[in-house]
Design brief:
Layout: H1 10-26, H2 35-48, H3 60-67, E1 72-77, H4 84-97, E2 102-106, H5 107-111, H6 122-141, E3 145-149, H7 155-165, E4 170-176, H8 179-185, H9 190-195, E5 219-222, H10 228-243
Parallel strand pairs: 1-3, 1-4, 2-3, 4-5
Helix pairs in contact: 1-2, 4-10, 6-7
């Protein structure tokens, strides 16, 4: 009678092989492997090997059903002072008033916590966006509507965020205002400080800002032509059909 062959999942096989190697290296003096020895071995396996659990977790659909909405990431980008944070704040408030669960991720807030170790070089800006996009994806998987407010100066920054979140769940919103208009507004005093040499690698001055290309399907909100109330209403009217459960 042929012997049945047991087939283990790749992850389990890898874990068992690693565990065997660790146990062999322990070499208990009395030849008996204690519970403590085994616990230490299992800890070492878990420390040095990563086994994702995403497929076992409660799915996004169940959470969206509970919340009565569809998760989506809206990524507002543009020059400092273009109005990103102002719009995102007002849109968040109005969506919450309509019963939606919303998470606002703002560039300045993120840089005072999660990304406080990053500067403003091209490499650091890219890493800044990568981390934020991963956070946005976590909220998306929980069924949230996510509003992001980040300068995201390069097309490559926005493409990276989109690739992490997923193109079907990601909408780019270009908050458009010229460098001159933003410098005139200068709500935070950053443009004056940069002009005096107090800020290096300032976007639009020392570091280039790349507007969307002609073939992009990004939404465009021009804050030079429309006031805050009109811009917020335009965004709300665009967002609701995407996130409201029919």
């Amino acid at each position: 009678m042929p012997t049945e062959q047991l087939i283990f999942p790749v992850e389990l096989t890898s874990a068992l092989l690693n565990l065997k190697g660790l146990i062999d290296r322990l070499k208990p003096r009395d030849g008996i492997l204690t519970q403590c020895d085994l616990t230490l071995s299992l800890y070492s396996v878990s420390k040095h090997n990563i086994f994702s659990e995403f497929d076992r977790m409660l799915g996004r659909e169940a959470k969206e059903s509970q919340l009565g909405q569809k998760g989506h990431v809206f990524w507002l980008y543009g020059l400092s002072g273009s109005g990103k944070s102002t719009l995102a704040d007002q849109v968040e408030r109005q969506l919450v008033e309509q019963g939606l669960c919303v998470k606002l991720l703002d560039g300045d807030n993120i840089r005072t916590g999660l990304n406080q170790d990053l500067g403003f070089s091209d490499a650091d800006r890219q890493e800044n966006i990568r981390r934020i996009a991963e956070v946005a994806r976590l909220f998306l998987e929980a069924g949230f509507v996510v509003l992001g407010s980040f300068i995201s100066p390069k097309q490559s920054n926005r493409d990276l965020a989109e690739s992490i979140v997923g193109i079907e769940d990601f909408t780019k919103v270009y908050v458009q205002a010229s460098f001159e208009t933003c410098a005139e507004r200068d709500v935070k005093g950053l443009y004056a400080k940069a002009k005096e040499g107090g800020i290096k690698e300032f976007t639009g001055r020392d570091s280039a800002f790349e507007p969307p290309e002609s073939g992009d399907v990004d939404w465009i909100i021009n804050t030079e032509q429309s006031d805050v109330a009109v811009s917020v209403k335009e965004l709300i009217n665009k967002i609701l059909p995407i996130v409201k459960k029919r």
